[in-house]
Amino acid sequence: AVQTETHGFQTEVKQLLNLMAHSLYSNKEVFLRELVSNAADAADKLRFKALSQGDLYENDGDLRVRLILDQDKKTLTISDNGIGMSREEIIDHLGTIAKSGTKAFFGQLSGDQAKDSQLIGQFGVGFYSAFIVADKVTVLSRAAGQPADQGVQWESDGDGSFTVTDINKPSRGTDVILHLRDSEQEFLDDWRLRSIIGKYSDHISVAVEMWKDGEPEQTDEEGKVTAAATEGEWEQVNKATALWTRSKNDISDEEYQEFYKHISHDWQDALDWSHNKVEGNQEYTSLLYVPAKAPFDLYNREQSHGLKLYVQRVFIMDDAEQFMPTYLRFVKGVLDTNDLPLNVSREILQDNKVTAQLRKACSKRVLSLLEKMAKNEPEKYQGFWTEFGNVLKEGPAEDYSNREQIAGLLRFASSNNDSDAQTVSLADYIERMPEGQDKIYYITADSFAAANHSPHLEIFRKKGIEVLLMWERVDEWLMSHLNEFDGKQFVSVTKGELDLGELDDEETKKAQEEAKEALAPLLERVKTALGDEVKEVRLTHRLTSTPSCVVAGEHDMSTQMIKLMRSAGQ
Ligand code: ADP
Ligand code: MG
């Protein structure tokens, strides 16, 4: 019996559909990228599953996507013979949003259309983008390995609910049928479609086909042939070579950017990328991208991240996080290796020598890419720093062997600038150090203002010594893992006795000795008055206009760290 059920969309889907209708108009052709991208993913998933279950191909191993136009019905169909979906899967996948970052995304919407459409682009609307151009969408699907009577039809006009019905579907895979809005009939134009496909789909590894000349065979919803093909044949309209397998010199920036959008679901261009083919001891190709914008859930521990893993060009898994350290979790990309077996699983990856080597190699690629950017395109690098700087600061703790290189990529605000802009590198700082200075001075505080106006800086300002200003939550953690850079030790200006070494001249030193003797009785009295509240009361020369201040002992936790631990509930 044909069983039809009506389901409501998850609230977030309804919101998304609503938003889309209003804000994505200028970008409407992306629906084709999203749907072809899903079809290509479905082909990848089938290839992977068929590695261990060859009969899933059902004697049809030529995976392809077809675009079919029907001028009478005014429909555009995207048809694939990939993995397909069962009834449960279709309800689940096309009724909810399972993406991480969903909550953060909806939290950030402002109601301002221009801003929100920017955000939606970054979030990615996937399948639901079909409703930008269609007022009704019908999906027919049958999962690989299932009998024909296990087909399912999903249908919705995008206003809050969808229906699912059991159908008979002899052909494996999924057809997405778009009933185009009256205003979107341009997508019935064969030539227009070919040009969009050329733009979006050359790099995906599955063939996209369109009928050349005349009309292809027509079938009804159950796959029965209703009209024979007139003339002509299926023609492949994309290159269908996985982009990373091609030679760098043959790939244009546009192609790199399109590929980025395919794998990242981002609608904006990537900031930069690094494409490398390695042969010899290790054999792999990596194509790693740095996005222009941080995702909504950069700080969410469950955030999905990692690379798309291929073994000998066969797709194995998304989000293989083992190949990127956590402090580089913003990197998107593909890793294709010959050094792992085709039946590799997440468990095998966990504890594997090859994995560790590849992670090391990929980390190095990203760090060199960033180094190059910082050197040759400092403004671009500054943009990167604004988005991801705080994540990179986790690096020295996580990746001890690369800490010097990571430190070179850090940017700080400085007491020289009177601005919270984090633009000063450690190399800049060292280059500006006056004669006799051999340490890198810094201060951590709760806010830029607190750092910039700290009484601890008075003596440094007076002597014209630059101090790096830090106030981000992660800074204390960072500095506890950085001891030196370029042979120069880091010194917190709030900790312990301040020895400015060579920077103090003889005369000052003498005056200080005298003051110390003269003021000893005063210090005694203050110490007695404060009792156990303090460890010691000391004469200081670091203040010039503030009479006194509290400092942490040299080996004690700084006040910042204490606050950090308290807020973490310790
Ligand atoms: P995403 O591709 O980011 O997962 P989409 O909204 O594009 O998000 O698709 C949601 C899910 O629906 C996919 O993850 C997939 O499981 C399923 N899906 C969509 N299109 C197809 C298809 N052509 N074949 C098989 N599954 C599909
Ligand atoms: Mg998708």
Automatic annotation (TrEMBL):
CDD domains: HATPase_Hsp90-like. The keyword Transport does not apply. ATP binds at residues 34, 38, 80, 85, 99-101, 122-127, 174, 346. It is found in: Cytoplasm. SUPFAM superfamilies: ATPase domain of HSP90 chaperone/DNA topoisomerase II/histidine kinase, HSP90 C-terminal domain, Ribosomal protein S5 domain 2-like. One of its GO terms (molecular function) is unfolded protein binding. The keyword Phosphoprotein does not apply. Residues 1-346 are annotated as: A. Residues 27-184 form the Histidine kinase/HSP90-like ATPase domain. It comes from the Bacteria. One of its GO terms (cellular component) is cytoplasm. SMART domains: HATPase_c. It holds the Pfam family HATPase_c_3. HAMAP family: HSP90. Molecular chaperone. Has ATPase activity. Homodimer. Belongs to the heat shock protein 90 family. This is Chaperone protein HtpG. It comes from Oceanisphaera avium. The lineage of its organism: Bacteria, Pseudomonadati, Pseudomonadota, Gammaproteobacteria, Aeromonadales.
